[in-house]
Amino acid sequence: MSATAQVESKERELNVLESTQQVIQDALNHLGYGPKYYDLLKEPLVTLTVRIPVRMDDGSVKVFTGYRCQHNNAVGPTKGGIRFHPSVTVEEVQALSMWMSVKCGVVGLPYGGGKGGIICDPREMSIGELERLSRGYVRAISQIVGPTKDIPAPDVFTNSQVMAWMMDEYSRLREFDSPGFITGKPLVLGGSHGRETATAKGVTICIEEAAKRRGISLKDARIIVQGFGNAGSYLAKFMHDAGAKVVGISDAYGALYDANGLDIDALLDMRDSFGTVTTKCKNTISNQQLLEMPCDILVPAAIENQITAANAHRIQASIVVEAANGPTTLEATKILADRGILLVPDVLANAGGVTVSYFEWAQNNQGLYWDEEQVEERLRHVMVRSFETVYQMAQDHDVHMRLAAYMVGVQRMAEAMYHRGWV
Ligand code: NAD
């Protein structure tokens, strides 16, 4: 990364941390909790930095820097993914651990939030190097993680294979099989049915609930999905199968829009493993144009900071459902709310992933495994209940859904800290 890119990335991430702190403070103020609560919640309780020496394929040793942050464990052990990316910073990992706390609170899981990250570029590493890095990271953080302390999961550029190496390394260190140490594992190692589609399923349920509240029938609805990766492509498929008209999709290289509806099955066949499809298509438009095209429901499912004060006035959807983390800035959230657009925030909309991770952990702990229907039924129950709780909080306090979701999440942590005698 160039020096300028590093500065820009750092500024963006600092803003993520600051804006998260701002919403937590607003949520506490609305609920009447004093400054002692904010003091404990404004940053993670634990931020561990580790340096990991890894033998590279050419015989040299390279030292990687990694982090593990545990925001708050008043409700229960902390939980959250591990990200492998060259732009990882400690502030980013801290903010992501705070989002996880709120998310777990919103869907009522017995967890606090955690997050991990390693500064590396897996696209430039061999499988052997990745395995040694994954195992080295587990050895470095092993004292503060574990099935009843802090349970990692996949995140950007980590997958079920990385989880399998990490689970194996932890089990060797502890000298007993520990599937409950980490979630997102392959099925044969104690993974859960339904994990791969869980985020998109959760988003789908939120879309159904939001559409009901707005009197929109999904069968007639026009939907735009930004991003065609794990979250976006499954979501587009579920919407298409539910009879909705998916009029727009995009990837990092461009977007497609057709007012008559796109052929989602054909696009899924053309898509590569990185979620790229538009490079093989004609008549593309830009991602920014796509967001402003006519539709009823807009689903950002790619990256952060896509709906900002600069374009929020031009969004035509009446419902925005955030499958991605942080796609809408705080300023844009307020503009959308003032315009009467119903925004379902990330900490609610994409919580299906961590919910099924929790199911995986619960199955590992009891040694009894569920089939796909059981997972789906329980996920639906959690998501419908959580949507209703957040919607009701928004109505009762006359606030937008993001603040309402933070109020639900923060309230659980505040109550748990109070009963533990921390405040
Ligand atoms: P992914 O890597 O599978 O796919 C990302 C998609 O976004 C790809 O189609 C890519 O081309 C596109 N993209 C990348 N940069 C873009 C840009 N600048 N403009 C437009 N599109 C761009 O990722 P994913 O797992 O689908 O995650 C997408 C979002 O959903 C992220 O914000 C992630 O944090 C969030 N999320 C995912 C999960 C999950 O289980 N996958 C869970 C919770 C949240």
Question: Which tags fit this structure?
Answer:
423 residues; alpha/beta; Rossmann fold; six-stranded mixed beta sheet; five-stranded mixed beta sheet; 14 helices; 16% strand; binds nicotinamide-adenine-dinucleotide
Overview of this structure, please?
The chain is α/β, with parallel strands linked by helices. Among the domains are: 44-178, Rossmann fold (3-Layer(aba) Sandwich), CATH 3.40.50.10860; 198-340, NAD(P)-binding Rossmann-like Domain (Rossmann fold). The protein has 14 helices and eleven strands. The protein has helices at residues 3-31, 35-41, 90-106, 127-141, 160-174, 198-213, 230-241, 264-270, 287-291, 330-338, 346-349, 352-366, 372-397, 401-420; strands at residues 46-55, 61-70, 78-85, 112-119, 150-154, 222-226, 245-251, 254-257, 297-300, 319-321, 342-344. The strands form two sheets. The chain has a six-stranded mixed beta sheet with strand order 8-7-6-9-10-11, sandwiched between helices. Helix 3 (90-106) crosses helix 14 and helix 6 packs across helix 13 (372-397). The model is unreliable at 1-14 (pLDDT under 50). It binds nicotinamide-adenine-dinucleotide (NAD).
